[in-house]
Amino acid sequence: MWAQQLGPADLRHDASKPFATTTKMLFLDDVRISRLDTTVGHYVRTRKHVANDSEQMVIGFYRSAEPQIFTVSDREWQLRKGNAVVYNLAQPCKSLTEGVTSWTIATIPRPLLLNLVPHADDQAMLFLDSAHPVVRHLQRTMDFLLDSNDVLESPELSSRTGAAFLDLVALALGARGDTAEVATARGLRAARLREALSIIEARFTEPDLSTEIVANALGLSRRYVNNLLLESGKTFAERVLELRLIKARAMLSDIRNDTMRIGEIAFAVGFGDVSYFNQRFRARFGAPPTQYRGR
């Protein structure tokens, strides 16, 4: 798995110390994201190793408390916890660590990355500003994706996630011109979707909640909000209905609500008609609301 991510190399471990390695890898189309922790302290890629490699760019966040001596193109750096770096993997390199080496890494085909950020490999090793909000968000996004299994359950979701991730990478690496504008626009659209969903989740029990109310709260048009929600896979009505039904089921199953009538619970979660509530509840859960009382 290490070779898949970082290419073949000479690996050496101090035989007098315990050995341990853990790694997790996520594939998003052409992008690979991984988390690596290893006691292997000696990693060397020679010209022979890189000769037949496909060109890959690495974006890495160093997480180990132990410093790492990293050499690329005969120039040496000392990496410390929190450093964020970018470099072309298709060049000889060497790393030495006296302890556990820990990285979160994204590997991206060099032509793909240079198409977004032409200056990405202008330096043998590019250090990113780890305090910059976009760089911090990139690191958090990589951690989130590695800890989430949902993204792998749908090819369409995986592809869209990969495209959004590349937008974030482009911004973190200082994309300019049209690329930055497109990436920023897509990022803004995603942020607005999150805001819209947050409002819906906070106010779905209001009987008169509508896309117009959500749009006004965000300072956007109703049509824009409807399109955002539709692109996310569910309409406004579908999202609100699902939230209300789940809330109703939870209330019905809570013995503290045993004194409430079915109609009172329906009204409490935002339904205005008990018959419609009963119909939708049965269609969603395969049983009438009365069967969920005190479960």
3D architecture notes:
The chain has helices spanning 2-6, 47-50, 110-116, 133-147, 155-172, 177-203, 211-218, 222-231, 236-253, 262-268, 274-285; strands at 10-12, 21-28, 31-38, 42-45, 56-62, 68-72, 75-79, 84-88, 93-97, 101-109, 126-128. The protein has 295 residues and is α+β, with helices and mostly antiparallel strands. It folds into 3 domains: 2-175, Regulatory protein AraC (Jelly Rolls, Sandwich), CATH 2.60.120.280; 186-233; 238-292, Arc Repressor Mutant, subunit A. The strands form 2 sheets. The protein has a 6-stranded antiparallel β-sheet with strand order 2-3-10-5-8-11. The longest helix has 27 residues, at 177-203. The radius of gyration is 25 Å and the shape is elongated. The chain starts with a helix and ends in a 10-residue tail after the last helix. Mean pLDDT is 86; it is low at 176-182.
Distance between the termini: 46 Å
- The largest sheet has its strands arranged as 2-3-10-5-8-11
The fold-level CATH name of the largest domain is Jelly Rolls
Instruction: Sketch the major β-sheet.
Output: 6 strands, antiparallel
Order of helices and strands: HEEEEHEEEEEEHEHHHHHHHH
Number of strands: 11
CATH homologous superfamily identity of the largest domain: Regulatory protein AraC
